[in-house]
Amino acid sequence: MKLEYSINKNKHSILFCKDDNIKKMSQVLANFETDKNVLFLFDSKIDKKIVEKIFNELKLSGCNIIKIECVSEKLNKNEKLLFKILDILLANNFTKKSIVISFGGGVLGDVSALASSLYLRGLNYICIPTTMTSIVDSSIGGKTAINYKGIINSVGTYYHPKIVFILEHVLKNLPEREFLAGIPEIIKCGIIGNKTILSLLKKKHNQIVSRNTNVLFKLCYLSLKTKIKFFLDDIFEKNRRLSLNFGHTFAHAIEMAIELKTKKDFIRHGEAVGIGMLCEVFYEKKKRDKIFNTIEDLLKKYNLPTKVLLKRVPLSREKLHNSIYKNIFLDKKRVGKNPRYISIKKLYHPQIKEIKDFNFLNETILETIYD
Ligand SMILES: NC(=O)c1ccc[n+]([C@@H]2O[C@H](COP(=O)([O-])OP(=O)(O)OC[C@H]3O[C@@H](n4cnc5c(N)ncnc54)[C@H](O)[C@@H]3O)[C@@H](O)[C@H]2O)c1
Question: Which residue ranges does the chain devote to CATH 3.40.50.1970?
């Protein structure tokens, strides 16, 4: 199973590997036009047995592989991790024909891709995503970034992986939280443009939570295909691609409010996107309507938060509220002074709009964000 797309006539591939064809990875690497130098970066939280399995597989390609462990939670998505990677590339004389492979979640992927785009103005980047969020979302589309001065993804480039490997072995062994936290990004793809995704999420719940590979591969395939449809003709996010930000104006505001104040990774990005989608629908419709209920029902079905639980976050109601309100104005989609959000008046018909009604913005935060 694979997906292919081209950007400026360059081919990019997403390869789905079941356990019995994992050998494909080393074959693909061996056939890559390269100087045989590979930097393999892996997230420190992945089970070491899995890291060894994938590393040994990649070694069969005959490449010289340097293996480096990275602590890569959201709080480490910064210039320190970026320069650590750049320093290793420099110290080992990597060239433009060398390869960086990230084996981790969205954080390690975004920072490794940024380093790959900056080093010698670009070397080869391969992504092996290890969380559901990174499998269905951050592994493709080319958005690279670090968080800088407390603002999420404020410094970054657009740079696309040559290859993405989606591994059955990873999907089967993911801890529950990192598995479920990616479901909101899948719901998002369904709501903005794919009916089959929503029906799979509703009807195949048991197979999904019990990690049936065929159903999961289908779900990932459809989500990635939907994402490709939205970004391919609009790589630099001028219009159509913005729809993929559904839920993100509020999600980023929530993540920044909690992380900046507490310096702790309390909420996963995907979990915040789930709450953010509810906020954006509520703001648009001024009430809980059918689309709101569809999203809320799915979040509940997959045991995902529909609100921030105040008792879990060491912040007062007032501090959280004010900080979220302020952060909404840092939205990166803004073109004037007002933040923008994705309005879903009708299923599968996303539109970008400005947030202009500040009283109702306050009410939306009050009504939909915390409990
Ligand atoms: N570039 C994009 O288009 C895009 C899209 C969505 C999200 N993102 C970014 O991705 C990040 C969120 O991604 P994420 O949720 O994967 O975060 P993450 O990379 O921080 O991973 C979440 C947690 O899971 C751990 N982890 C990763 N893989 C694991 C595994 N196999 N087993 C056990 N633990 C594992 C990590 O150490 C971390 O503690 C955010 O920074 C967000 O901005 C980028």
Answer: 2-174
- Best mutation site among 70, 74, 160, 188 for ligand 1, i.e. most ligand atoms within 8 A of its Cβ? 74
Positions of CATH 1.20.1090.10 in the chain? 178-371
- So what's the pLDDT on residue 203? 97
- Low-confidence residues of the chain, pLDDT below 70? none
Q: Which of helix, strand or coil describes residue 188?
A: helix
pLDDT at residue 220 in the model: 98
The single residue listed with the structure tokens 């997403």 is: 14
Q: Hey, what are 150's tokens?
A: 């407390």
pLDDT at 53: 93
The pLDDT tens digits for 12-33 are 999 999 988 888 899 999 998 8
User: Angle at Cα 125 formed by Cα 120 and Cα 128, nearest 5°?
Assistant: 155
CB within 8 A of 283, min separation 6: which ones? 341, 355, 360, 361, 364
Nearest to 152 by CA among 311, 267, 315, 10: 267
- CATH number at 2-174: 3.40.50.1970
Structure tokens at 203: 């009807």
pLDDT at 311: 78
How far apart are the C-alpha atoms of 158 and 125, rounded to whole Å? Answer: 12
Going by C-alpha positions, the residue among 176, 67, 153, 170 that lies closest to residue 107 is: 153
Q: What CATH number belongs to 178-371? A: 1.20.1090.10
Q: How far apart are CA 114 and CA 146, in angstroms?
A: 8
Here the tokens at position 344 are 């879903």
Please tell me the residue having the least CA distance from ligand 1 atom 6.
138
pTM over 0.90, yes/no = yes
Task: Take atom 13 of ligand 1 and give the residue whose Cα is closest.
Answer: 106
User: Using CA positions, which residue lies closest to atom 33 of ligand 1?
Assistant: 46
- State pLDDT tens for residues 296-332: 999 999 999 999 888 788 888 899 999 999 999 999 8
